[in-house]
Design a protein that fits this description.
This protein has a two-stranded antiparallel sheet. It is built from 20 helices and two strands. The protein is an all-alpha fold and 518 residues long. The longest helix is centred in the first third of the chain and has 37 residues, at 2-38. α2 (42-70) packs parallel to α5, α6 packs antiparallel against α18 (419-448) and α16 (357-381) packs across α18 (419-448). It folds into two domains: 2-195 and 311-507, Growth Hormone, Chain: A (Up-down Bundle); 198-298.
C-alpha cells in the first residue's frame, strides 16, 4: 500500500513538474516564434495564448464529470495526455502560425484534465491536509518554472535539421515537451494506482482495531476461564494494556486518531477504552457513524434526482451558494490578472529593458525561485492560519504590486531612472503573492464543495478560469501600446475583489471547524 502511494505521488508530482517546464520553455519564445518565423502580429500572439484556455474551458467540466462518475483518474490522464503529446509535436513541426494556434488548442484539451487531478487530491486527503497538498502540487509546477529557463539556455543554441523538420531555439521546446509527456504517459500507465479515500482508509483501520480488541477480549476471557492463578491473569492483562498502548502510538493508529479528531469525532483509542475493551465490539452501524461528521453525512445523504432537467437544477442549486460563487469569481479575476501580466511581460521587458530571450529566460528562472519560496512559506503558514486569512493577505499584497506597476512602470520608458529596479521589484511582489491567491482559493473551494460533485465543481471553476485566461491575453494584446489602460483596469477590478472579500469574509469558514485560528 505504501509503495503504491509513493509511486502514485511521484507520478502526480512529475506531471505538475513537467507542466511548469512546458510553461517556462514555450512562453518566453512564443512571441518571437510567431513574429520572426511567421510574421504574426501582437493580437495573434494573444489569440495563441487564449487558444489554450479556450480548450480547457470546453473540456474541464467534461473531465470533471467523468471523474465524479468513474473516479478513474488514471484513464482520464492517459487520454488527456495523448492530446498534450500531439499538440507539442505540432508546435515542433509547425509550418504556419495557424498550426501553432492549433497546437496550443490541442495542448489545452489535455490540460483540461486538471480538475480531475485536483479532485483526486481532494478525494484522498483530509481537510487538514488539503491546503498543504494543493501547495505541494503547485510548488512542483513552479519548480518546473525554475528548470524551464535553464533548459532554454541550452535549447537556444540548437540549430539542426531532422529530416523535414528544423530543430532550433523556437521549435526545440515543442520537441522537448513531446518527449517529456511521453515519459509521463509511460509513468501513469505502469506506476499510477487508485488510492482509497480517507474515509475508506479510516474505516479499514477502525475495523482492524475492532478485530484486534475482540481477539484480546477473547484471550482475556480464556485466561480467566482456565482457572489459572491470579498472576497469570494479571500478566495477560498487562500484555493487553501494553499491546493497546503500542497500537495507540503506531503510525496507523496515529493516523486514524488524527483523522477522527480533525473531523470532531470521538477518538478511537483513549485511556477509558484501555480499561474497558468491550467498547470496541460495537456494531457496523456504529463504525459508519463515526466516520463522518454531521455536515458530511448530510451532504452525502442528499439523493441525486433522476432526469436531466431535475439533475441540472439540483446541481445548479449546489453551486449557487454565496461562498462558492465568491471563490469562483476570485479565481476568475486572479487568472485574468495573471494572464494579462504573462502576455505583457515579454514585450514589456523588450520595450523598457531591451532584453533578449536570454535575459527573459533568466527572468522566468528568478520568478520560479520567487514563487517556490512563496509556496514553502505558504505551507508553513497553512498549519497556523486559515485559508480565508491567507487569501485575504494575498489579495492585499497583489493589490500593492499592481499599484507599483501603475505608478512606476506604466508611464516609464527605457530611459527612466531606476527602471530595471522598478520593474523587477513590482514583478517580484506580484509573483510572490500568487500562491496565496490560488492555493487557499482551491483548497477552500474543495472543502465547501460537496464530495459527490468534486470533479464537476472543480471543472466549473476551471472553466471560469479558462474564460479569464482567454480574456486576459486578448486584453493585454489589444492594449500593449497603452500601459496605463492595460494595468489600470485590472487594478480597479482587484480593488473591487478586496472589498468583496471583506464583505464575504464571515461566510468563508471551513465547514469542519467551529472556530478558526487567526
Amino acid at each position: 500500500m505504501l509503495t503504491k502511494k509513493v509511486l502514485t505521488n511521484v507520478c502526480l508530482k512529475s506531471l505538475f513538474l513537467f507542466d511548469g517546464i512546458e510553461y517556462a520553455v514555450i512562453l518566453p519564445t512564443l512571441w518571437d516564434y510567431l513574429r520572426l518565423e511567421f510574421g504574426a502580429s501582437k493580437w495573434f500572439y494573444g489569440l495563441s495564448l487564449s487558444a489554450f484556455s479556450m480548450a480547457t474551458l470546453l473540456t474541464g467540466p467534461l473531465y470533471g464529470l467523468a471523474f465524479d462518475h468513474t473516479h478513474q483518474t488514471k484513464l482520464i490522464i492517459l487520454v488527456a495526455n495523448v492530446f498534450v503529446i500531439g499538440g507539442n509535436f505540432m508546435y515542433f513541426a509547425a509550418q504556419s502560425k495557424y498550426m501553432i494556434l492549433a497546437s496550443r488548442f490541442c495542448v489545452g484539451i489535455g490540460a483540461g484534465a486538471e480538475p480531475a487531478i485536483f479532485g483526486e487530491i481532494a478525494r484522498t486527503t483530509t481537510q487538514k491536509e488539503r491546503t498543504a497538498a494543493f501547495s505541494i502540487a503547485n510548488a512542483f509546477q513552479q519548480f518546473g518554472l525554475i528548470l524551464g529557463p535553464a533548459l532554454n539556455l541550452f535549447l537556444r543554441k540548437l540549430d539542426y535539421k531532422i529530416g523535414p523538420f528544423t530543430l532550433n531555439k523556437y521549435t526545440s521546446p515543442g520537441a522537448l515537451m513531446t518527449v517529456c509527456w511521453i515519459v509521463i504517459e509511460i509513468m501513469f500507465l505502469f506506476f499510477f494506482f487508485k488510492l482509497p479515500t480517507v474515509t475508506d482508509y479510516v474505516k479499514s483501520q477502525y475495523e482492524q482495531h475492532v478485530e484486534r480488541s475482540q481477539q484480546q477480549q477473547q484471550q482475556l476471557r480464556d485466561s480467566e476461564n482456565s482457572g489459572n492463578a491470579n498472576n497469570g491473569t494479571d500478566e495477560v492483562k498487562k500484555q493487553l494494556v501494553t499491546s493497546v498502548e503500542g497500537q495507540s502510538c503506531g503510525d496507523e493508529a496515529s493516523l486514524v486518531a488524527s483523522s477522527l479528531a480533525e473531523q470532531e469525532r470521538t477518538p478511537l483509542l483513549t485511556n477509558d477504552s484501555m480499561k474497558d475493551m468491550s467498547r470496541y465490539s460495537s456494531s457496523q452501524s456504529t463504525a459508519q457513524s463515526i466516520q463522518k461528521s454531521p455536515e458530511e453525512a448530510k451532504k452525502d445523504s442528499v439523493p441525486v434526482p433522476k432526469g436531466f432537467l431535475h439533475k441540472a437544477y439540483w446541481m445548479l442549486c449546489e453551486f449557487l451558494r454565496h461562498e462558492l460563487v465568491y471563490l469562483v469569481a476570485v479565481f476568475f479575476v486572479v487568472l485574468f490578472y495573471q494572464t494579462s501580466i504573462e502576455t505583457m511581460i515579454v514585450p514589456l521587458l523588450e520595450d523598457l529593458l531591451k532584453w533578449t530571450e536570454f535575459e527573459t529566460s533568466l527572468f522566468y528562472c528568478g520568478a520560479g525561485i520567487d514563487v517556490v519560496a512563496s509556496f514553502v512559506f505558504l505551507m508553513f503558514l497553512s498549519k497556523k492560519i486559515s485559508d480565508r486569512w491567507l487569501l485575504l493577505s494575498g489579495l492585499i499584497v497583489e493589490l500593492l504590486a499592481y499599484v507599483l506597476f501603475v505608478v512606476f512602470v506604466a508611464g516609464a520608458t527605457s530611459e527612466t531612472p531606476w527602471i530595471h529596479a522598478k520593474v523587477l521589484i513590482a514583478s517580484a511582489i506580484a509573483v510572490f503573492a500568487l500562491p496565496f491567491l490560488f492555493v487557499p482559493n482551491g483548497s477552500l473551494f474543495s472543502k465547501l464543495l460537496p464530495k459527490h460533485v468534486q470533479g464537476f465543481g472543480q471543472g466549473i471553476q476551471w472553466s471560469f478560469g479558462a474564460i479569464a485566461a482567454i480574456l486576459g491575453p486578448l486584453w493585454a494584446g489589444a492594449t500593449l501600446h497603452m500601459y496605463h489602460v492595460l494595468m489600470g483596469v485590472p487594478l480597479g477590478i482587484l480593488a473591487g475583489v478586496v472589498i468583496l472579500t471583506l464583505d464575504s469574509f464571515s461566510r468563508l469558514k471551513e465547514p469542519s471547524k467551529n472556530s478558526e485560528q487567526k
